[in-house]
Amino acid sequence: MGLNGLTKHEAAYDPAALVDKRSGKPKRVSKKMREVIHGLQDGTYRTKKAAAIACGLTDGYIYNAFRQDHIRKYIDDRTLQLLRAGKLRASQRLVDLIDAKSEHVSRDAASEVLALNGIRAEPSAPLVTINNTNIHAGYVIDLSDPREPRDRPKLLEIPAETQED
Predict the structure, then answer these.
(1) CB-side neighbour CA atoms (13 Å) of 109
(2) Which one of 2, 39, 96, 106 is at 20 to 30 Å from 65 when CA atoms are compared?
């Protein structure tokens, strides 16, 4: 939940822009606009211009319509419906990939399932740290220009005879 009990999805739209000023009813998406939106979503049309021509609209009309809140809300609602419908298939596919013949695919699927359930492996420490942004065991490579005067941290010099192999 977000602002005033609204989800992020609902809070993205101006409530006044979703209602017709004269009738007070929610604005509707025309049949032609629904055809354009569905055709773009299912791949029937590859571009907005192609969809506009096929549905008997101008590309300028489509451009302006896609900027209106009630059209954007319709597109988002439709997208969420499609994603919800695919959630079961996607989760089943991910679980099936755990038993894949490829060990690499199986490991990646298992890691993804664990990560989705809040179990994530700690990444191994990098062998090289650039510009000292992450402090881990390994080497530090200073890429700054040595001719530029600035306060530098003191580097620890270890004599070669005391280093272990």
Answers:
(1) 17
(2) 2
* 146 domain-assigned: no
74 occurs within a structural domain: yes
Domain assignment of residue 66, yes or no = yes
Residue 84 CA to residue 49 CA, distance in Å, equals: 28
> DSSP string spanning 24-91?
-SBP---HHHHHHHHHHHHTS-SSHHHHHHHHT--HHHHHHHTTSHHHHHHHHHHHHHHHHHHHHHHH
**Whole-angstrom Cα distance, residue 37 to residue 115?**
34
Please choose, from the candidates 18, 114, 110, the residue with its C-alpha nearest in 3D space to the C-alpha of residue 73.
Answer: 18
The strand pairing partners of 140, in sequence order, are: 129
Q: Total domain count for the chain?
A: 1
pTM for this prediction: 0.56
The Cα 61–Cα 53 span in angstroms is 11
pLDDT tens digits, one per residue of 12-43? 777 888 888 888 888 899 999 999 999 999 99
